[in-house]
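Quick one: structure for this chain?
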Amino acid sequence: MTGEISKLEECIGYGFHDRSLIVKALTHTSYANEKITKHERTESNQRLEFLGDSVLSTVISTYLYRNFPDMNEGSMSKLRASVVCEASLAEIARKIRLQEYLLLGHGEELSGGREKPSIQADAFESLLAAIYLDGGLQSVSDVLMKKLDMESYIKAHASTYENTDYKTKLQESVNTSQTEIGYEIFRVDGPAHDCTYYARVTIAQKATKDRNFAEGSGRSKKEAEQQAAKALLAKLGIV
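Got it. Here's what it folds into:
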């Protein structure tokens, strides 16, 4: 298996100091169960998968925090979830042909286990844990972001979750020397602990007094004003 491991190491751009870790990362439970004897027990990749899940989350969270300073916690969580979901991880695993290196039990092999996204994704997380134990967190980050180009994958999906400051966009889109912009909360519905705010934004031409307005709602005054600004931008054909 040494030659096969070398090929995989080349694919991921990382050479293991302790190759027993990568072998363990590739060992599915079905294979480990078949190899149990009275005197010997083969460890599967389940424990590594557990660790790899946290390692992956840490690397992605750190990247998002450093590279998207204007993205709020909720949006970062959603973007991270889309990146580390089973389908995404299985896709990356297939790119490095990880399924070809897996050690599967006879029954799992016959049932098409190599092509199961869940097994591919779990093995990929196990591989990341093995890299972490062998070379540290920076090595995992280098493999993910540089060799496997997860950075491009994240950036391609980021636009869906990035925050847009519609109030600032509206401010920048109108001639403020000739136009006045005003916001007001004109209604609040519901109890104090669970209310909905309704905001109206109005732009008025200073010379002609012509007005244009739009309304929006949200769970906070700030969100309501943002939604009102977004609605007015749409009304003006800007977004």
